[in-house]
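Fold it.
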Amino acid sequence: MKIKIIYLLGILLIAFAFLNYNNAISFTDGAPSGCSGSPKDGSNCSTNCHNTALKKAEQGWIKTNIPEKGYIADSSYIITVTATGSEVSAKFGFEFSPQFITGKVAGKIIITNANETKLVGGGKYITQKAAGVVGKVSKEWTFKWIAPVKGSGKITFYSAFIVGGKPENSITSSLEINESI
């Protein structure tokens, strides 16, 4: 009887570990396509990927060197996205996408740190690699963006973040950018 109980407990422990394996790895090597927080992405990565509720939307987590008057067509700009947590936060993740109101990609993302970031979704999104998740309290990623052709109009940068710790938090940020006239 004791052997059957031990055997059953072993099976239950293995089943529990297997069911929680996906949450344990939590897409360390990058988010799947469509998890930028854009309303056109159609994916809720806070619940689909990380089993956590969306904490809130934050402003200021996406910074650029785009002038206040707007982007100039075909020009290159620096984008920095920063996730900020608390003193217990040590792992971070993100996905970013520049989009028109239709959800179509706006411009082109250029990798500047291939060790920590990669493109997914045919270049519509940039996300972290496993080497780019560790930080202390916060983590930032920088890359380039080439603006779309003249006459493209307003675009929105979308980014979703995961801030590790107890509990893990899912946060979004967006930034609207006008075209310079």
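Strands lie at 54-57, 62-64, 76-84, 92-99, 108-110, 117-120, 125-128, 138-146, 155-163, 169-177.
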